[in-house]
Amino acid sequence: MITIKNSCTIPNTFGIKACCHEYVEPETEEELIDYLKSRAAHPVMSHQPLLIIGGGSNLLFTKDYEGTVLHVAIKGIAAEETAQGVMVSAAAGENWDTLVEYCVEHEWYGLENLSLIPGEVGASAVQNIGAYGVEAKDFIHSVEVVEVATGEKVLLKNDDCDYAYRRSNFKTSWRGKYVVTKVNYLLSHEFQPQLDYGNIRAELERMDIVHPTAKLLREIIVNIRREKLPDPEVEGNAGSFFMNPVVDRKKAKQLMECYPSMPHYILNDEEVKIPAGWLIEQSGWKGRSLGRAGVHGKQALVLVNRGGATGEEILKLSETVRGAVKEKFGITIHPEVNIL
């Protein structure tokens, strides 16, 4: 039986109190399809705003949502051997890190660097989540969805989704069009570690290890993330609030002349990615607060709810931080979090 609640508090890791007209939580694909078809056939419901969410780890509510919030709670993980590797199919409502842990335990490789990213599997396909040199798009084979307007099932291939850094068609031209029910990842039985991002190499050197196992690499990444990122149960947050900006080589060269130690990652012959956390720290905002909202003291990329902050207060802080970075570096940083 599908769960439908009225005016309940919408789950979100910022700990912001936000309510909606209706909260719908299907636990099977059949429940989701039945709901969407009923909605499409109802003249009032079909015109009511619909917000599709995952675990609420990438949302900032600045007000109540005057519509229906839909959270897909479908669970399940399955795997099938193919000529290219192992196809791992995970339902949209599965916890993301549970999936990564499950894959490592079964020696299905590729997702290790994405350990401990908050959220659910469905969001990985929408947001193209990434960390430590790896993005979800590198392993997504296809995405199973249901069309909101018709309740019909659709299979979308990786190329259909137009994946790029922290973006996909789900966030742009398809926004609100589909509900993700399952994501299919093509993983490998051969472990090919990605070690050249963040503090991974430094930690391996400290441990005097050259060739880590996938399990050890996952443990290292989990420990790094736990060390530098706040627990949402203690301080409300949505993880990385801003995307790392990408600039052209000319702009990067100018900045390097002023800041020779500036961390940066060369993406191609024309583009360079600069850590937004470094820009924020250099702008003097690391660890500072604006009222009840603050910038985390260990990772400036994270904005936190110091206790009782409203969504408007956190939004004001984000705009202030963006202004400081723009003034100092001439670079505009953009939120990764969805602001509502």
What structural keywords apply?
8 helices, 25% strand
Q: Can you offer a commentary on this structure?
A:
By secondary structure, the chain is α+β, with helices and mostly antiparallel strands. The protein contains eight helices and 20 strands. It has helices at about 30-40, 95-105, 120-125, 200-205, 215-230, 250-260, 275-280, 310-330, and strands at about 5, 20-25, 50-55, 60, 65-70, 75-80, 85-90, 130, 135, 140-145, 155, 180-185, 235-240, 245-250, 265, 270-275, 290, 295, 300-305, 340. The strands form six sheets. The chain has a five-stranded antiparallel sheet. A four-stranded mixed sheet has the order 1-2-5-3, with no helix packed on it. Strand 8 (about 130) and strand 9 (about 135) form a beta hairpin. The mean pLDDT is about 90.
Shape: globular
- How far the N terminus sits from the C terminus, by CA atoms, comes to 29 Å
Q: What is the tally of helical segments?
A: 8
Strand order of the largest sheet: 6-7-12-10-11
Succession of helices and strands? EEHEEEEEHHEEEEEHHEEHEEHEEEHE
For the residues shown, what is the average pLDDT?
91
Largest sheet composition = 5 strands, antiparallel
| DSSP strand tally | 20
